[in-house]
Amino acid sequence: MSAMALAPESPRTLVLEPTVHAPLLARRFLAGCFAEWGIEDDHLGRVVVCELVTNAWRHGEGPIVVRLYLEEGDGRPVVEVWDAGAGRPVVRPPDDGAVCGRGLVLVAGFARGCWGVRPLNEGGKAVWAKLPGAE
Fold this sequence. Notes:
One of its GO terms (molecular function) is protein serine/threonine kinase activity. The chain has about 140 residues and is α+β, with helices and mostly antiparallel strands. The protein has helices at about 20-35, 45-60, 105-110, and strands at about 10-15, 65-70, 75-85, 115-120, 125-130. The protein has a single domain (about 10-130), classed as 2-Layer Sandwich (Heat Shock Protein 90), CATH 3.30.565.10.
């Protein structure tokens, strides 16, 4: 008798109103999911989800959907943030005088370049980042 492969766990999902409170609620949600998964260090995940949710709140449209899951192949956590806005995120060149605009640079660095954006069938976009595994 062969071992049966278990189906991957469904993504954990949180739907947020696009308000100033959305980033805080997303950080709390991620911290809870990481604790359930036994991931002790959630610092990078909290920064990434906060940046992506903040972008969705400031530049997107409609409700913000946060999805968290562990990649089936390597077990690394993936953070996805959906919104209904048509605009796409842009990594801006460094500007030492700017007071904002560094969020995606941080996300790209923390995710070691493993991030992106994809259109959603129903309109809008999903911005995702795959976090490094335990070192």
